[in-house]
Amino acid sequence: ATVSEPAQKCCTENIQPFLASILEELMGPVSSGFTEVRSLFDKEVNEIIQDFQKTNDTTKLKENVDQLMNLPFNSVKMEPCYLKVNLLQELLQDLKNRFKVYHIDFVIQRTQNFMQELMENAVYTFEQLFSPSRQADSAKVATTIEKVKLRVLK
């Protein structure tokens, strides 16, 4: 009871007025990181489509889809996504000074973990939706891959 009123006053006067602008500032790097994840998935699936259209090789298609399943764990390919979120380091440093925000690395790491989870979910969903169609007529496979990709991106 003794602490409640001063704490509420402090939050109302010193923190609440800045929350919207802080959230907006932080969401820039987070959004660009997740957009990069989406672009990477799109690019990788487009490469699978192009490769299949050139070769019509279903064995190679299976290999490419298997490689896609490993995409979330490919640190080289995921690195551009993670780098977008590293901009939070600078933004959070300012918050640390103003509002005593600690564990900046934890915030960045958790965001990157969520990005990896999103990619895991995307490739898993892609594989689950595409798997039954893998044995289809080779003329329809590229179209099916594209439809599945668009469904996953949706």
From TrEMBL:
<comment type="similarity">
    <text>Belongs to the Niban family.</text>
</comment>
<protein>
    <submittedName>
        <fullName>NIBAN protein</fullName>
    </submittedName>
</protein>
<feature type="domain" description="Niban 1/2/3">
    <location>
        <begin position="9"/>
        <end position="154"/>
    </location>
</feature>
<dbReference type="Pfam" id="PF26086">
    <property type="entry name" value="Niban2"/>
</dbReference>
<dbReference type="InterPro" id="IPR059060">
    <property type="entry name" value="Niban_1/2/3_dom"/>
</dbReference>
<dbReference type="InterPro" id="IPR026088">
    <property type="entry name" value="Niban-like"/>
</dbReference>
